[in-house]
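[job 4417] fold queue: 2 targets
>>> target A
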Amino acid sequence: MSGLPGEATDAAARRLEELALNASGAFQSLVYDGWLLGYRRGPTKRLRCVNPFYPSSLPLQEKIDHCTGFYADAGLPAIFRLLPFSQPASLDGWLERAGWAPFERTLVQSASLESLLLPSVPNGDVTLMPVPDWQEPVAGLLDVAPELLVQYVESARTYPLPHAGAVLRRDGEVIACGLVKIEGEHAGLFAVHTAEQYRGRGLGRAIVTALLAEAMRLHARFAYLQVTASNAAALALYRHFGFTTAYDYWYRARAGEQG
């Protein structure tokens, strides 16, 4: 698999990756010869996998063995996240030949906010709120395990950069949500989700509109997000706001460890 050349330079793509990891809050990882070994438990694979970002010097077989042992000891599947700028460049081919299968191709998209004209959102439809207060109402919609909720709330309380959550309710129930996190001129959109029975009614568009409006209020000039390549509905939604693909990434894991 390959990235999308010409859309983003390796340096720009790596910076977007750093922004996204910073936005994740309380990112738990060990640095190992230019690789970040994430071990934060939860549904987000990019926070519990090998992120091979920076130049590497140790023999590749030695590094692979170290990583598989690390995740076995942590009780987590050993997963690698491959990007156009992964180091060393031979890593993806090595894993392919060793039987690590690719899965879940994801697109990193970006958009300029400087000339974006946002559609109006009916007053009262979307509520913006502090992220620590947002975590509990959206836990059911996002399928957050109870044992992780306390951790997420505490992480939100100590997060050092501007951020805000958005919810949309019907009859008191949260049926759509999203999150924006801002670092400098960049705003990242996360956890944009609509309950299945309410999809196709423009609720996702209302959430994204509110989040981008908040980003612009806080002087962000660019926005970014991550979306699986197979999610046609989400891609259509983000295209409406001018998002285009900067690069892609994919995971590799051994049989039985792709969860």
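>>> target B
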Amino acid sequence: MIRVGTCSWADESFSKAWYPKGVKSGERLGFYADRFDVVEANSTFYRLPDEELVARWARLLPDGFVMHVKAFGLMTRHPVRLEALPEDLHGEVEADERGRVDRPSREVRGEVFRRFLAALEPLREAGKLGGILMQFPPYVVPKPRSYEYLEWAREQLDGHEMLVEFRHKAWFEEPAEPLAFLEEHDMTYVTVDAPPDVIPLVVARTSGTAYVRFHGRNRATWFKRTGSTAERFDYLYSPTQLEEWAGTLRELDRDAQVVYAMFNNNGRSGAGEVPDDLSGGLAEVAQAPTNAAMLKALL
């Protein structure tokens, strides 16, 4: 089973170059779910999810649909804005001069994990919750403290699938040890397609799930900190590149229970290498859903 989707359904590129005019914001998830059967929710990286909103997602999504959810930044050792935390936790943390919380106590982190998972219960009860994407920042490198944190996080996510994405190339230079660790501790490794000199491509699986995230290969914009994923992940995969990946995904599918191919190249681009039936004659296309549709057609 190979499922193809995108790492958002509400990105600006979607609303400007993919959703037809007349599709209102509240209708977009349903429109998306008519075309794909898996998605990542990434707004949860910036703020803890709201249970009422999650319940609405669960009602909108059809049976069999899978929604993976990106962990809140504090759960993956990213600094977060103080106002992103619930007010009752403000007295339990210290913010720096920029108003960011970077090093909370384990007790606070544990409470954040608990509230995060509690808010996702409507999706879980509906049978539509996939994994929790733990995307670690580039400064988390393979050392004892990092492995200890992974073990602790695994305990907090007990009963949930833990998807682990590394962003520092040291994890991939000698991947045997981190891959063995993930497999031993029941964590799902996330294969990353990115500029190869930034993050080397290591295709692997450490659980019954094979998970691939496509960030694009635009090195020129990779390190930009503009706040815009449309600029940083500005990349349109070519038909040839997608054909190569279709073969790799089929290889993974031989032994995996499920394979996920998730596109995070959230930008807009000219439709030169996009089939006419997907570009619709438009001057530009939303890269992630367009590439996802192209890959689906190859599988």
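[job 4417] complete. Note on B: The chain has a mean pLDDT of 92.
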